[in-house]
Amino acid sequence: MSNLDNIYANPHHKVKDFVFDETVVDVFSDMIQRSVPGYQTIISTIGHLAQEFAQDNSTIYDLGCSLGAATLAMRRSIKNTNCKIVSVDNSQAMVERCLTQLNHFKSDVETQVICEDALQVEIEKASVVVLNFTLQFIPPEQRAELINKIYAGLQPGGILILSEKIRFDANQIQNTLDELHLDFKRAHGYSELEISQKRTAIENVMRTDTLETHYQRFEQAGFTNFSQWYQCFNFTSMMAIK
């Protein structure tokens, strides 16, 4: 049972930039369920896609694994021979909690959890790579480098699954979807104070791209086969197949 996210329930004299520290780790499961529409659908579908695209004698990467939800979904689903999962997060608190979560479930799939920057990880013999709400926290000028590296490390027939919050150039569309997302958070019990302070905390840390920008990166990396498979409000998940 996850702890209730009340980090921003009381007024903060100064709202600091959002970080994935021990305080966030303690409430992360509750936070993500109440903040990202369709999160559980995305996680379960990542498991299904991994089952379809995982290859024998390959590696599956979960970059920005947080508490390991996508890792667990994939580990339950894949049946391949000599297939291992490498789960990566740059937050030591997340990595430690992820290991605890994974240890609650037995599996024959070799799984390695490491504390590292996604940009520093070698991508080799990959059949599945997951970036589940990770790229948006990487500096924009380094995002193409990571997508290029993933493409180079994917085996033919391999898949990149990329989930992101996106923005829209059309102001009316952007404002409408923003308001729908705020209503989603209100419906899940967040107060106006919590919504406001969380937005202040995260605005310098999470910088969103348009769907077109993501597609351009795919093309520049070498992908020719890619599409959205999910969208709710301003949250989407995409697949790109090599």
Automatic annotation (TrEMBL):
Taxonomic lineage from the root: Bacteria, Pseudomonadati, Pseudomonadota, Gammaproteobacteria, Alteromonadales
Coiled-coil spans in chain: none
Protein name according to UniProt: Carboxy-S-adenosyl-L-methionine synthase
Methyltransferase domain segment(s): 60-158
Organism (species): Catenovulum adriaticum
Annotated residues for binding of S-adenosyl-L-methionine: 39, 64-66, 89-90, 132, 199
Keyword terms: S-adenosyl-L-methionine, Transferase
Family, as annotated: Belongs to the class I-like SAM-binding methyltransferase superfamily. Cx-SAM synthase family.
EC code: 2.1.3.-
NCBIfam families xref list: carboxy-S-adenosyl-L-methionine synthase CmoA, PRK15451.1
Keyword S-adenosyl-L-methionine applies: yes
HAMAP family in alphabetical order: Cx_SAM_synthase
